[in-house]
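Long-time lurker. I teach an intro course on protein structure, and each term I like to show students one example going from raw sequence to a predicted 3D structure in token notation. This year I'd like something fresh instead of my usual example. Would anyone be willing to generate the tokens for the chain below so I can use it in lecture? Attribution to the forum is fine with me.
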Amino acid sequence: GLVAGVVPAAVEAMRGLGAEPARIVARTGPAICGACYEVPEAMRAEVAALAPRAHAETSWGTPALDVAAGVLAQLDALGVRDVRRSPSCTRESADHFSYRGDRVTGRLAGYAWLD
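-- Reply from a regular --
Happy to contribute to a lecture. Here you go:
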């Protein structure tokens, strides 16, 4: 989604319906953090070329991605200022589903509303 431009497309769709980026409130939900999301170096380079703030390194020193940081950077570039990142890493938290941590599928949800 980060590379495919899902966030910019969503903000542009909202603008097309009359939303003003400065009034958009955005929150990232719990997600794997950059210190845990190990990826091949080529993938990190590809993503970081489009979203430099997503470039990360795991806590054990291997290439990683910080997807939430990349999303927040995209929102910032689009003029969305009221943003907040969840502090929960799904791999580190026993309270959150993580395929990478548990190797078991699960369910996630998202929501949006007009105010």
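Some talking points for your students: Strands lie at 25-28, 55-57, 63-65, 82-85. Residues 6-98 form one domain.
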